[in-house]
Write a structure and sequence with these properties.
Elements (H helix, E strand, L loop, with lengths): L3 E6 L5 H12 L4 E8 L5 H8 L4 E3 L8 H14 L4 E4 L8 H6 L4 E5 L11 H8 L3 E8 L9 E8 L6 H24 L3 E4 L2 E4 L1
Parallel strand pairs: 1-2, 1-4, 2-3, 4-5
Antiparallel strand pairs: 5-6, 6-7, 8-9
Helix pairs in contact: 1-6, 5-6
The protein binds 5-O-phosphono-beta-D-ribofuranosylamine.
Amino acid sequence: MPHHRIGVLASGRGSNLQAIMDSCSGGTIPGQVAVVISDNPGAYALQRAKDANIPAFCVDPSGFNTKEDYEEKISNLLKEYGVQLVCLAGYMRLVGPVMLKEFANRIINIHPALLPAFPGLHAQEQAWNYGVKYSGCTVHFVDEGMDTGPIILQSVVPVMQDDTPASLAERILEQEHIIYPEAVRLFLEGRLRIKGRKVEIL
Ligand code: GRF
């Protein structure tokens, strides 16, 4: 099995990054995280990468005149590190045309709700406020929309009567750490085929 190279973009705590790194080192993902990039200098994700001896960079968007320039910089870094798959893991920005073109159908994201329900920010709180009985998480390909790309995997969790947004988020996060590495594995094994809105698992 060829050894693939993954790039991870993360803005915060990086627990999904950690799950992906652990699955790589444990051998369930046939690849390695080659580079981690953050838009936030304080992101704990950067520390996790350093602790694992993985190259980690903060690219501050305010240092660029346009979003295109910022994304050129990120794309170049990802290419420099020979990345085949880009994983967004709590990356708090919409991906624009520059990256989408450079990495067409090679960018995936995890979202803490059952899309297309509750896209955007604070998805767990949105679900809790709405009163749904089940929520969950979704791994999907990234397109130009906000959490709108073809769905790869989903996992469902129940919403309990005594849940708070935080306890629900915790239950969902456990599932995120299972399905995100699983989706990365399927991608790298060449087992995902996009057919319009549908993703076939081979
Ligand atoms: C996760 O809930 C993920 O679904 C969402 O942002 C959060 C990131 O958490 N996109 P972490 O930084 O991976 O711990």
